[in-house]
Design brief:
Elements: E1 28-30, H1 35-42, E2 47-52, E3 60-67, E4 70-77, H2 83-96, E5 100-109, E6 120-129, E7 143-144, H3 147-157, E8 166-174, H4 177-181, H5 188-201, E9 205-207, H6 210-222, E10 236-244, H7 253-276
Parallel strand pairs: 1-4, 1-5, 5-10, 6-8, 8-9
Antiparallel strand pairs: 2-3, 3-4, 5-9, 6-7, 6-10
Helix pairs in contact: 2-6, 3-7
Length: 279
């Protein structure tokens, strides 16, 4: 359904060989929303071995990272903003043979009673408040992070110094930032009530991409030929976000820089732990 040995991507210049690595488990891939953040994340690599330039800004940076005598093959590529853009980029990566994806980005907090800007949030699942995922599965199909990826993120967090707190829970993935979050348009009252319901239900953060990543990767993993639980062919996904403020509060630049540095290190430790788990 997804992997295609003859596939030639339409929106990037990545190759099948770029997806290889980590002793057959596949290259670990960060999927942030912006190419600027992707470039920033590539600066954490010990070595950038190649850059696959894209006219659309979906540049793939590949290389290696070493932590505590463990070296992993890693890459980072921008998905763009929103589920439709993620749909294109993650589908093309899956068709090329990509297997391990970790979204790294920002989110708006939904629980100010115990969260604040500068914290970090690890997604266990995502509310599918988008339309792109509904082109693939009915609304009842859950968008969940891979259990192993969540475990790796939680374990990895113990090795990262962080100025804020780390939270774990259900994310909200929306189509419209301005309607749902900023209450623009004729449905402002309905959007405000919808967001209030999610807060009462315990959703911890709101963003725009996790539901699409989770839906695609869970379907791809369900269609792998090797059904072993610890198969090298497992398709795994997760999301870690730096927490901004509520609604239009995008945080002070100094806070955002510290939060981003800590988030990237948490992502690196997640993949190091996943590698140690043999996945």
């Amino acid at each position: 359904m997804f992997y295609d040995p003859n596939f030639e991507p339409l929106h990037m210049t990545a190759t099948h060989d770029d997806m290889l690595g980590n002793n057959g488990r596949g290259r670990y891939i960060f999927v942030p929303g912006s190419d600027g953040r992707a470039l920033k994340m590539s600066e954490y690599f010990d070595e950038v071995t190649a850059v696959r330039k894209s006219s659309r800004g979906h540049n793939l940076y590949i290389g290696t990272i070493t932590r505590d005598s463990t070296t992993i093959d890693i890459g980072v590529i921008s998905t763009g903003m929103g589920a439709p853009s993620v749909d294109i980029i993650v589908n093309e990566l899956l068709k090329l043979g990509g297997k391990k994806f970790l979204r790294m980005g920002t989110c708006g907090l939904l629980q100010p009673a115990f969260m604040k800007g500068g914290d970090h949030a690890i997604a266990t699942a995502a509310i599918r408040d988008d339309h792109a995922t509904k082109c693939y599965t009915p609304a009842e199909y859950p968008a969940i992070a891979s259990m192993e990826m969540v475990q790796a993120s939680v374990t990895g967090s113990e090795k990262v110094k962080h100025s804020g707190s780390i939270h774990i829970g259900i994310f909200h993935s929306k189509d419209s930032l301005y309607a749902r979050e900023f209450k623009q348009g004729a449905m402002a009252e309905q959007n405000a009530e919808y967001m209030a319901i999610l807060k009462r239900a315990g959703a911890v953060a709101s963003e725009m991409e996790a539901s699409m990543i989770f839906t695609l990767c869970n379907m791809a993993d369900a269609h792998r030929k090797d059904r072993a639980l610890m198969s090298k062919d497992r398709v795994l996904c997760g999301t870690i976000c730096g927490v901004l403020g509520e609604e239009e509060d995008f945080g002070h630049p100094d806070m955002v820089k510290i939060m981003t540095d800590e988030m990237v290190e948490l992502g690196i430790q997640t993949f190091i732990e996943l590698n140690r788990m043999g996945l």
